[in-house]
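Good morning N.,

You mentioned wanting to compare the apo and holo forms, so I went ahead and generated the holo version with cobalamin. This is what I fed in:
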Amino acid sequence: MQIHASYPTNAPSAVERHPKGTQARILLSSVFGPYAQDDEFGSRSINPMELYHNQVTRAQGSFSLRMFHRSWGIMLIQANITAPCAVLDFPTRDDFAHEITANHYDVIGISSIIVNVVKVREMCRMIRKLSPGTTIIVGGHVSAIPGIDKMIDADHIVRGEGVSWMRRYLGEDETAPIRHPAIVSGMRTRIMGIRLPERKGATAATIIPSVGCPMGCNFCTTSAFFGGKGRFVNFFETGDELFDVMQRMEDELKVQSFFIMDENFLLHRDRAMRLLERMKEAHKSWTMSVFASANAIRKYTMQELVELGVSWLWMGLESPQAGYSKLQGSDTRELTRELRKHGIRVQGSTIIGLEHHTPDNIMAEIEHAVSHDTDFHQFMLYTPVPGTPLYQQMSEEGRLLRDVDYADVHGQFKFNFKHAAISRDDSKRFLDWAFWRDYEANGPSLYRISRTLLAGWKRYKDSPDARVRERFAREMHKLNGIYSSALWAMERQFRKVDAKVSDEIRALRKEFKHESGIVSRLMPAVLGPVLLWTTKREERRLARGKTYEPPTILERTNWAEA
Ligand code: B12
Ligand code: SF4
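and this is what came out, ligand included:
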């Protein structure tokens, strides 16, 4: 078995080549499901394959935003090799067994994060039994586990960036430009008990400009995995390259909105400003959802952000006392308020259980987080994850709890280390409280995003910039009847949680009515009661333990039947 580190990129290659080179048949698979249940392979009901419901809106009941995202890492690798390749996403164990017996693969690559290491072990075992002779490659964050080579039976374990590694392995040109796959960012979206229709162009395209982040926060696993502080891997260096990719996606997927999967997109100001120039020249009224740190956001005026089309922003708030450089000089509450006034939805992210937290001060810190009144709020436990500087430090200090299963090391359950002041069980109580408190005080996120949208619409509906005007009009007209109806149902359903917030929802609904055309004005009378009914039905289903799973997807490229 060999363990390879593929960062820094372009390091001299010690990777042996596959004898068949680009003729090798490759299968790239994510780990098997089902995911949202407790089982012996490390699935956990608390850890579903859903971004929002897992770590953001999980306390919001039937108002929780539920959707699935494909495994973009293996899609990116597939799009950048010329070998015949299949991607198998979200298989069951039976699907996986069937695929590797129905077809002969020379190479099977498994992509996984740390929590799913037992599934990787099982998949390696299955491959050895059902497809002996096949080379097994394991990549993704799971490879950062110390001693992983003793835990699983793989031939190669790849740390860091996978496209260049795989190209090298197959004897392809690893410096060739990256070809971006067409990725629809989310699927099977559900809210208020309804599955939203999937029309071409209705869902954003995911764009992956880079992996890693040079800020190097001590707990950050993505930063550490792609080289750590001062390093990251750029797939598209310039605004021009990015513009070209986005334009291609606009054509292929018929989208005008993009989910930019870059840990700190706004940090690279030259690239973003060049992208804006190109957008202006080509009159592109695009919408962008981005991740950015507060110090990076502060490099832009609100006008620049709005012109760029930033409509959703994921920002780490962590804790004002924590001293992270990305937060220095920022009043994050003021920044959040300002962004929302300009129609930019803010998703805050707060860490529970930092070193300075104690049972005496943590409630105040949670209140502070909640007082940001962000549209969405992610809460996560401070978690030393293998590969990060924090893990190294905790390990040296002898504070890691040795008997915690990797399947439970994901920041949404309990501490995996000895905290100076907070017990393991209390870590979960504080975390659960934070989610609940944010929901109770600020209402369903769907209400909050409606409010931000309306604020943006009012501010920019007469903007002199036609691109900006068009963007807000597009969002408002497409949705205002739906939002008003959802608000009608939310107002009633939320009354039992908090009457004051319910009144605020009602006031917002009235404002929507004022800004709406005749059809949208009438819609809540019909659609509102339907949504109230589906919401209640969903509450009952959830109370009975209903969970959701992503569909299995198989996609082949450069394929000729053997
Ligand atoms: C989208 C996403 C998800 C999606 C699911 C995606 C999926 N289909 O599996 C959702 C939202 C459901 C999700 C859920 C979870 N996620 Co998540 N997720 C991400 C996110 C935001 C993007 C992943 C991505 O596509 N990145 C871009 C691609 C290009 O990078 P990549 O996947 O790392 O792939 C590259 C390399 O790793 C490598 N590679 C990957 N696979 C393979 C395979 C082979 C064979 C090779 C050679 C190379 C290779 O090559 C790729 C190209 O360079 C990342 C954060 C991030 N910025 O990466 C977190 C992240 C991967 N998630 C993480 C976590 C912890 C979780 C959860 C546990 C939620 C939680 N409680 O936090 C759950 C787990 C759910 C479950 N039951 O398994 C952590 C992983 C931590 C770790 N060290 O293991 C990350 C890094 C976030 C973070 N910073 O903490 N997640
Ligand atoms: S700024 Fe965010 S993405 Fe960058 S290292 Fe810190 S936590 Fe990670």
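Residues 248 and 342 are 29 Å apart (CA to CA).

Happy to go through it together on a call whenever suits you.

Best,
F.
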